[in-house]
Amino acid sequence: MASVDIPRTVVGHILKLIRPSDWTKNVFVLIAFAFWAANAMTTASAGEIETATKHALFAFVAFCFVASGFYCINDTLDREKDRAHPVKCKRPVASGAISPMTAVVVGLAFIVAACAIAGSVRFGLLLAIVLYALLQVAYNALLKRIAILDVTTIAAGFALRAAAGALAIDVKISVWLVLCVFFLCLFLGFIKRTCDLVAAERAQSGWRSSAGYGDRRELDFLLGLSAALTMVTYIAYTTSEHAQLIFGSRSIGMTLLSPFVLIAIHRFWRRANEGGSDSPLNALRTDRVVLFAVMCYAGLLIVVLFMPVARTALDAVFLQALPTAMKLAP
């Protein structure tokens, strides 16, 4: 019986090490595909839609794998410091459940697999994966120990995910959308720093942030700033000429969904200051307000983008500015 239980235990620890629950963060890779599909359903051929869907999913899997690879490496590098943290001490490497060598081998295997998957789609996607990997190397080597630069690097990685999703299906992406993803992930990065600090304070542990975050007032300022920039860039994107040109009146519907974004942002801030988990998946499982906001936003966004009746209603109710490109057309 023992010979069966040991492998299962090891597999369980490896699954915990690669954090599949955090793969939900790679949903940003699929944004470009979702917005492209809103028009492609009526303008593209079945073959084009099938190819784009396959490439978008491959890009999603590639980023899941490369992120998991660096989780393994990062946990190995931080194992000594994590042992002093009341929550991070339970990670497989810090707790001793997985050896550092095993974690590094697993991490490198996932990174290589990510490159292979990306290369099978497009060379541009492979370049995005390589750039993300270099960003993670810089983060682990130096940037994670410098306040603000650490979270900025993480947010840049998520903005790169959004751009890579566009590269995977060979479409252009709005700079407003990239900035919106960047500032949202900047906010979530500071949420994580707040969660770490609050958990350490409550446990009265000797853990200290490697980047020097020790003042709750500083983190509250950074959270407020990044939250405000997230809302501003989201509204700027949905009201931009770019969005109007692509989505028409549906861009107004996207703007009207901004209260749900605000609700989710506030709830994550409250959870962080209460010492809750920073994991988006955990928030969806345990926080009804977050679940409500996310489900309403996602469900209504699908209605706005894909149901003709929504566009008809928006056309009938709201005034629309004529995009400059259309004004200049002969």
Please provide a written account of the structure.
Helices cover 76% and strands 0% of the residues. The N terminus and C terminus are likely disordered. With 330 residues, it is mainly α. Helix 10 packs antiparallel against helix 13 and helix 14 crosses helix 15. It has a domain of 166 residues: UbiA prenyltransferase (Tetracycline Repressor, domain 2, Orthogonal Bundle), CATH 1.10.357. It contains 17 helices and no strands. It is globular, with a radius of gyration of 21 Å.
Work out the radius of gyration: 21 Å
The biggest sheet amounts to: none
Please name the fourth-level CATH homologous superfamily of the domain at 8-173.
UbiA prenyltransferase
CATH architecture annotation of the domain at 8-173 = Orthogonal Bundle
The CATH class name of the domain at 8-173 reads Mainly Alpha
The number of E-state strands comes to 0
Proportion of residues in helical segments: over 70%
**Distance between the first and last residues' Cα:** 79 Å
Strand and helix order: HHHHHHHHHHHHHHHHH
Shape: globular
Strand content: under 5%
Which residues sit in consecutive blocks of at least 5 with pLDDT less than 50? Answer: 1-6, 325-330
Give the class from helix and strand content and strand pairing.
Answer: mainly alpha
Mean pLDDT: 85
Q: What is the count of DSSP helices, taking H or I runs of 4+ residues? A: 17
CATH third-tier fold name of the domain at 8-173: Tetracycline Repressor, domain 2
